[in-house]
Write a structure and sequence with these properties.
The protein has 219 residues and is of the alpha+beta class. It is built from five helices and 14 strands. The chain has a two-stranded antiparallel sheet. A two-stranded antiparallel ribbon has the order 3-4. A two-stranded antiparallel ribbon has the order 5-6.
Length: 219
């Protein structure tokens, strides 16, 4: 246990790492919450359309103007990177982060808009109240820590959880030491969930937990 505690500051430090953008812009790596809303199939309320910033599966509901902006930013993505092999943004641009892997370079204002749209995604969809403890269309129970884990996630996130569980032993220091090897951190889907996953998966898990209530039928 002592060795585990020694590793905790290192994990915290890693999560607080900064991203240095070419030029003078430096942003915290965790500055923007990145929920995974790629498979939300609900129909948008009047006045909103699917954003589709990261493809046809991006069903965050936004205004038509925001959707057009996303398409334009995608078209100019290559021009705003340091090089084809380096996704770092040139000066004046930052990663959009509509999802955890969305590294399209946009203006800080567009990034802020994206964060706000993600935060309001649940309130912009049409859905019917049909009871509780049942996921809305497009979501399934995560079951990362067992059949009682009823956090609603996309099918892809559930598959990722199963894969991480299958590789849990390979990512630990030893069978008796749950400390993660370099490059991995505890998932923490629950307080006792010490399965080692990538930092991106940990962030996804935290976000899924935060949005759990909004993805249940009747919410």
């Amino acid at each position: 246990m002592a060795s585990i505690r020694k590793r905790l500051p290192a994990v915290a430090a890693a999560s607080a790492a900064v991203i240095t953008v070419a030029g003078t812009m430096v942003l915290p790596a965790a500055a923007v919450a990145v929920p995974n809303l790629l498979s939300q199939p609900d129909t948008c309320k009047s006045g909103y359309v699917w954003r589709e910033a990261t493809g046809p599966g991006d069903h965050v509901c936004v205004t038509p103007g925001v959707r057009a902006q996303a398409q334009d930013d995608n078209a100019h993505a290559a021009d705003r990177r340091v090089s084809p092999s380096d996704p770092t943004c040139i000066s004046g641009y930052v990663w959009r982060e509509a999802t955890a892997n969305d590294l399209v370079c946009v203006t800080p204002g567009t990034r802020a808009q994206t964060k706000d749209d993600n935060a309001h995604a649940a309130s912009r969809v049409q859905s019917d109240a049909q009871g509780s403890d049942t996921c809305k269309s497009g979501y399934v129970w995560r079951e990362a820590t067992g059949s009682e884990d009823h956090v609603c996630v996309t099918p892809g996130v559930r598959a990722q959880a199963r894969d991480d569980n299958a590789h849990a032993a390979d990512r630990r220091v030893s069978p008796s030491d749950p400390t993660c090897i370099s490059g991995y951190v505890w998932r923490e889907a629950t307080a006792n969930d010490l399965v080692c996953v990538t930092p991106g998966t940990r962030a996804q898990t935290k976000d899924d937990n935060a949005h759990a209530a909004s993805r249940v039928q009747g919410s």
